[in-house]
Amino acid sequence: MATPVTIYGPPLSTAVSRVLATLIEKDVPFQLIPIDLSKGEQKKPEYLKIQPFGQVPAFKDESITLFESRAISRHLSKANIDQWVETEGQSFGPPSGDLVHDLLFSDAPVGEALIKKNVEKLAKVLDIYEQKLGQSRFLAGDEFSFADLSHLPNGDYLISSTDKGYLSTSRKNVNRWWNEISNRPSWKKVLGMRKNA
After folding, report:
1. Cβ neighbours of residue 181 under 8 Å, at least 6 residues apart?
2. Where in the numbering of this chain does the GST C-terminal domain appear (predicted)?
């Protein structure tokens, strides 16, 4: 959500307040369009196109229009997880996956220049993670989610089986996060299955 989302309704409304708190908690930029309920603005035809029941709140971003505060808040929470899953897939995954392949599984010799390039890419990503993880326990907030879990496979190989583990362990917040997510019972079970394979 690069551009600010739009929320319609008065902050005095408990439903609007729920959405505003979610937006603020998730650091989502937003624009608040006040709707004056005492003047019946929620029943005007333009607003009914957004919120067909003539209630508040309503929500719009680049791709979706929603109403009902809990649905909006769930959408925002899922979007926060999704953005970190995409970050893993687009920014963490490629250099970490290349390093795992090149350092552990490649049959052909790999040039130092390529390894250095991927170390530099991954270091930049982990610098951003370091900042984010200084603000929250996990990537998408204070609860473990798929956004964290998706880092386990490549991260484990990098940290436990290569000399590049320092990329994570040298960063205080990333190291704390890594120790927490990699010691989860589900991941310990997967590691046991790897050993027995």
Report:
1. 138, 144, 148, 149, 151, 152, 187
2. 74-197
